[in-house]
């Protein structure tokens, strides 16, 4: 099979996903288009050679609807021959899009393809697209639906992580993100977002709170205790599936969960020949990809399983990976992952993650793959695995290897 | 065409037809086949006869407008059928039958002429659904008139358009509240919700309804059939976040409230979710499909039989000996003014009886009376409580029992004290007054020996708290006579509770089988099984609380005392089990149950919170290398241990009918109500299956699961409890 190589990876900075966020005035299609423009302009590739653009988007309705990938291709003035497709694998959409773009290259469907994602959470709120999973009583009952926050608290309870464990993890995420920004580790990949008159509206991750400590987090109330214990009472729903637990320990709050932000990201992939055509040095090759499904009520323990599957596909061992990146959807997700696979925190999310910098749902997967590639290059290491927990019990992973 | 068998027809000078529903020979209107036939004919006439300008539907019964469908006449699939989910071949048949009713009411609301409904009294289930298919509703102005769709309470769902018309009238969210909880509304509430249009004095409702028909010749179009129709409370669309949120939250709440065990509420949720997004004709088909799916499952039939048919029959005296004149109690002698005696005094006084409330000290007797003022004072006005209090006469003097025509004894559970009390009472009022003992464990035959006419001695076992618990277990001793049974049943009817009649044995029926649930839970704990798993297993399979929580409530100490007494009584025949060791250990630890704030749970002081005692796992560790069983295994043990004990009660003759067994289990100790009770459940599982599971459990866990010979014989012959009971009745 043809190898798929990464030639470039960029992302926007992440703006607070609120009306006072810097990116709130930027339409989602602009966020996506500016990423596409940057990939084109940084590599000088003739976009006629880019066969397809695959973009993840989790709430693909309203101004994110109607195939935002093809729309962004048009806005970015790519060749009109470049196709575009929007995909949704919930929180892993951006990584799934990258895997699909890579698969297109590997299968010979595309010579070059872009994988990435976009989400303006301030403009198209989470849940705007509805979901039979939650809304249709027959489906909901069948799967014992619970919101992710309750699932994250279930993980903490089942695997024994306390509020302090979760808060300590969050403090460290903030610390690492602040240090990485300070040392300029992200500067090669972050593309400032510009407004209609070409002025930069944001050039850094806006959600971070570098001064966060245990004390400041200690004052926050658990976010999911109300819906868990009172109305409508999701704790009783999840205990139906996990009867070994007496009650749910609600440890998560805004400070140890991923932030709601706006942003976009893109990764340019292509064959070896295409790199040679444009004199581009391949930064890494895609070594393995995987997606899995697992128990949907606990929902967010999929990373363990998808990591094992991807390693298996690659013929690798947990210790063969130099750096891990797991999206910080909730602190317990990462704590459970490290516990289950016996991965040292020193090898994982070394420059912080979504607790500090935010999780623009459709884009995050491509963002963290770019981040880990930058880190491999900076440290001169060889292999990395990026993965995310995904709604409804899924998981998606990608293993890359520098060449 | 004139009147039909069930509906009288009267056309007035304005061309308005008055259709008065009046089922012959019935005290209350219900929807049966004849009514459907007659109504269809009249709807046809209404639509086609130009002389008719409109119609008013009302009832000829003083008892109300109409109750629901004739549940006794409905032939559902439950009881006796083998289980395993909905039966597909049956579903299409049920759909045809139930959709015919939906179609008829749809014909009514689309007949092109205005139809008003004059609701003179209660309109429940199908009764309200008929009214909702009319274009205008006037209800009599009486706050006690109940309007509602309570089908869910007996395992059903509304099947005549209720899940579609109620949301279109009052909005999806409020309608769901009423549909899922089966809650009734008063006329004024219904007016506020837009479910009725007018509330008027009872003697004016027909005139008001006619006036509306006359004034609205074009009123024969339902709101939902009009272009401008807007759903109250926002559009019924999955695209409407409010609508979506209602179902997301509503489903979670329903899972929480039912542990996912009841089919009815989920069928209602789906019918409303899918149906409200559709035009009415399609919506009604959806409702009928969910109805068919629901009643094709044995659960609905089992619930209707136990919770409705058997319950009503028991309350109307199904077990009352024939040929004995009514024996209403006028003056009750209540011996013992503790919690039970005080509660019995209260419900008896409320039912209009005079009660002599006797205890050893005047202070105790007065305290018993105060129970009534405390409890009722919170809910009723003082002028209503006072006459009830005036009927309760606290005393310490046995002579005050003179004139009592029924005695209930609720003194300390000690044979000597009970004997002495019995003798003292007899000395005052003689041996002819029926004497009831509210013992929960001591065999009646033995207690009756203290009475010179044991045929007049009977067990009348109440549950605590008396005012809330609906069941009374009547225990027939060896020598108890039919008059005592009649007297006790007539008394239970007076206080409006549900009786079962059982024969004498240690623990009778309910205490014996209820204790089994606790015992098996305690045994599991003794084996080192995770206590949270034990508790959740019990709750999730449909018991009201976990076995350890129950044990704390009734007190571990009490269980310990009963155990000691049983050991003493049985001598060498007593077999010690793992549960005994657990109870002894808990006693050693000073953990006596809820009343001392620590048992299997730790109780927050003053608060309602409780957490499992963290020391439990250490006190009862898992055996080396043992992992917790699957929840299904725990549930199997908790359930089949009860089933086998119930079957034994049947074999031993403690129970003589499966109905008593089912009602006693559901209302006595909260046994999984959605099954219709242990006997319905065994029939539904199939006795052959029950025997197979029990044989395996007996092998793995011991003799307590051993199959009674009678059950094995029945299984071999392919029999069922209810099948045999029906044959016995027919013979």
TrEMBL record, chain A:
UniProt GO molecular function: acetyl-CoA C-acetyltransferase activity
Residue ranges occupied by any Thiolase C-terminal domain in the UniProt entry: 280-402
Keywords: Acyltransferase, Transferase
Domain Thiolase N-terminal per the UniProt entry, residue ranges: 5-229
Taxonomic superkingdom: Bacteria
EC number: 2.3.1.9
Similarity field: Belongs to the thiolase-like superfamily. Thiolase family.
Protein name: Acetyl-CoA C-acetyltransferase
Organism: Pacificimonas pallii
Lineage: Bacteria, Pseudomonadati, Pseudomonadota, Alphaproteobacteria, Sphingomonadales
UniProtKB/TrEMBL annotation, chain B:
KW S-adenosyl-L-methionine (keyword) present: no
Keywords for this protein: Fatty acid metabolism, Lipid degradation, Lipid metabolism, Lyase, Multifunctional enzyme, Oxidoreductase
Signal peptide feature range: none
Pfam families: 3HCDH, 3HCDH_N, ECH_1
Coiled-coil blocks: none
Highest taxon listed in the record's lineage: Bacteria
Listed pathway(s): Lipid metabolism; fatty acid beta-oxidation
Annotated 3-hydroxyacyl-CoA dehydrogenase C-terminal domain residues: 507-603
Domain 3-hydroxyacyl-CoA dehydrogenase NAD binding: 332-504
The keyword Lyase belongs to this UniProt entry's keyword annotation: yes
Family as reported in the entry's similarity comment: In the central section; belongs to the 3-hydroxyacyl-CoA dehydrogenase family.
Name of the protein described by the UniProt record: Enoyl-CoA hydratase/isomerase family protein
Organism: Pacificimonas pallii
């Amino acid at each position: 099979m043809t190898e798929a190589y990464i030639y470039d990876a960029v992302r926007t900075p992440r703006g607070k996903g609120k009306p006072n966020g810097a990116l709130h005035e930027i339409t989602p299609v602009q966020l996506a288009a500016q990423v596409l423009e940057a990939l084109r302009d940084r590599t000088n590739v003739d976009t006629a050679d880019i066969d397809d653009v695959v973009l993840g988007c989790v709430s693909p309705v309203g101004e994110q609807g109607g195939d935002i990938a093809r729309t962004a291709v048009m806005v970015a003035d790519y060749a009109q021959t470049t196709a575009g497709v929007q995909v949704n694998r919930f929180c892993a959409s951006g990584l799934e899009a990258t895997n699909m773009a890579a698969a297109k290259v590997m299968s010979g469907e595309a010579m070059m393809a872009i994988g990435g994602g976009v989400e303006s959470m301030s403009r198209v709120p989470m849940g705007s697209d509805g979901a039979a999973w939650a809304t249709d009583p027959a489906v909901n009952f069948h799967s014992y639906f619970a919101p992710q926050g309750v699932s994250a608290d279930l993980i903490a309870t089942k695997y024994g992580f306390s509020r302090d464990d979760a808060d300590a993890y969050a403090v460290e995420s903030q610390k690492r993100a602040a240090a990485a920004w300070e040392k300029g580790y992200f500067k090669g990949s972050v593309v400032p977002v510009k407004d209609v008159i070409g002025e930069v509206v944001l050039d850094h991750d806006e959600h971070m709170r570098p001064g966060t400590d245990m004390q400041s987090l200690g004052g926050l109330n658990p976010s999911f205790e109300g819906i868990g214990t009172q109305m409508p009472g999701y704790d009783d729903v999840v205990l139906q599936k996990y009867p070994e637990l007496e009650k749910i320990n609600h440890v998560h709050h805004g400070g140890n969960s991923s932030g709601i932000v706006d942003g976009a990201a893109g990764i340019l992939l292509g064959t070896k020949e295409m790199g040679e055509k444009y004199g581009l040095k391949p930064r890494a090759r895609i070594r393995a990809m995987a997606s899995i499904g697992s128990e949907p009520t606990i929902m967010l323990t999929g990373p363990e399983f998808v990591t094992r599957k991807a390693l298996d596909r690659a013929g690798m061992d947990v210790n063969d990976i130099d750096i891990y990146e797991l999206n910080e959807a909730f602190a317990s997700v990462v704590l459970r992952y490290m516990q289950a696979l016996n991965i040292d925190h020193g090898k994982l999310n070394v420059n912080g993650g979504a607790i500090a910098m935010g999780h623009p749902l459709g884009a995050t997967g491509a963002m963290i793959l770019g981040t880990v590639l930058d880190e491999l290059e900076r440290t001169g290491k060889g292999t990395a695995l990026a993965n995310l927990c995904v709604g409804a019990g899924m998981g998606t992973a990608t293993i890359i290897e520098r060449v | 065409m004139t009147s039909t068998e069930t509906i009288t027809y009267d056309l007035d000078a304005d061309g308005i037809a008055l259709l008065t529903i009046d089922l012959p020979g019935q005290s209350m209107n219900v929807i049966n086949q004849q009514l459907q036939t007659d109504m269809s004919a009249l709807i046809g006439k209404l639509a086609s006869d130009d002389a008719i300008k409109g119609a008013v539907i009302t009832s000829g019964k003083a008892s109300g407008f109409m109750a629901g469908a004739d549940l006794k006449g409905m032939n559902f699939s439950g009881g006796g059928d083998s289980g395993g989910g909905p039966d597909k071949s049956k579903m299409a048949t049920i759909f045809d039958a139930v959709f015919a009713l939906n179609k008829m009411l749809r014909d009514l609301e689309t007949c092109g002429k205005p139809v008003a409904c004059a609701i003179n009294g209660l309109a429940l289930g199908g009764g309200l659904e008929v009214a909702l298919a009319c274009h205008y509703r006037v209800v009599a102005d009486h706050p006690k008139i109940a309007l509602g769709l309570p089908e869910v309470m007996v395992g059903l769902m509304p099947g005549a358009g209720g899940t579609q018309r109620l949301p279109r009238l009052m909005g999806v969210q409020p309608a769901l509240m009423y549909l899922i909880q089966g809650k009734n509304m008063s006329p004024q509430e219904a007016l506020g919700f837009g479910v009725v249009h007018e509330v008027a004095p009872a003697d004016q409702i027909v005139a008001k309804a006619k006036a509306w028909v006359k004034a609205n010749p074009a009123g024969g179009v339902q709101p939902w059939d009009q272009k401008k129709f807007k759903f109250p409370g926002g559009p019924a669309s999955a695209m409407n976040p409010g609508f979506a949120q209602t179902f997301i939250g509503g489903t979670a709440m329903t899972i929480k409230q039912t542990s996912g065990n009841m089919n009815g509420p989920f069928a209602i949720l789906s019918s409303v979710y899918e149906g409200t997004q559709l035009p009415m004709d399609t919506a009604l088909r959806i409702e009928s499909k969910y109805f068919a799916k629901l009643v094709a499952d044995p659960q609905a039939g089992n619930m209707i039989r136990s919770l409705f048919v058997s319950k009503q029959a028991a309350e109307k005296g199904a077990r009352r000996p024939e040929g004995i004149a009514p024996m209403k109690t006028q003056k009750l002698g209540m011996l013992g003014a503790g919690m039970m005696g005080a509660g019995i005094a209260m419900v008896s006084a409320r039912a209009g009886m005079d009660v002599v409330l006797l205890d050893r000290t005047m202070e105790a007797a007065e305290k018993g009376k105060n129970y009534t003022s405390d409890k009722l004072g919170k809910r009723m006005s003082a002028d209503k409580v006072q006459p009830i209090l005036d009927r309760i006469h606290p005393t310490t003097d046995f002579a005050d029992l003179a004139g009592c025509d029924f005695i209930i004894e609720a003194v300390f559970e000690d044979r000597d004290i009970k004997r002495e009390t019995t003798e003292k009472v007899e000395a005052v009022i003689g041996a002819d007054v029926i004497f009831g003992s509210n013992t929960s464990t001591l065999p009646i035959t033995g207690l009756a020996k203290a009475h010179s006419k044991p045929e007049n001695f009977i067990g009348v076992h109440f549950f605590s708290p008396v005012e809330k618990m609906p069941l009374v277990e009547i225990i027939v001793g060896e020598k108890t006579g039919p008059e005592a049974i009649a007297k006790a049943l007539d008394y239970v009817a007076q206080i409006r509770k549900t009786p079962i009649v059982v024969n004498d044995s240690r623990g009778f029926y309910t205490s014996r089988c209820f204790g089994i649930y606790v015992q098996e839970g305690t045994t599991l704990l003794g084996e080192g099984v995770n206590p949270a798993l034990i508790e959740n297993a019990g709750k999730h399979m449909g018991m009201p609380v976990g076995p350890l929580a129950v044990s704390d409530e009734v007190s571990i100490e009490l269980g310990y005392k009963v155990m000691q007494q049983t050991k003493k009584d049985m001598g060498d025949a007593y077999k010690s089990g793992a549960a005994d060791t657990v109870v002894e250990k808990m006693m050693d630890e000073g953990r006596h149950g809820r009343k001392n704030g620590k048992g299997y749970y730790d109780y927050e002081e003053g608060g309602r919170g409780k957490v499992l005692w963290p020391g439990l796992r250490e006190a009862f560790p898992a055996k080396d290398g043992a992992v917790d069983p699957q929840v299904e295994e725990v549930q199997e043990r908790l359930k089949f241990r009860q089933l086998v004990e119930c079957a034994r009660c049947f074999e031993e003759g403690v129970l003589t009918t499966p109905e008593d067994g089912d009602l006693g289990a559901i209302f006595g100790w909260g046994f999984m109500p959605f099954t219709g009770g242990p006997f319905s459940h065994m029939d539904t599982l199939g006795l052959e299956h029950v025997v197979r599971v029990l044989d395996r459990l007996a092998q793995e866990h011991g003799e307590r699961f051993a199959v009674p010979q009678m059950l094995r014989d029945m299984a071999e012959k392919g029999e069922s409890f209810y099948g045999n009971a029906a044959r016995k009745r027919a013979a």
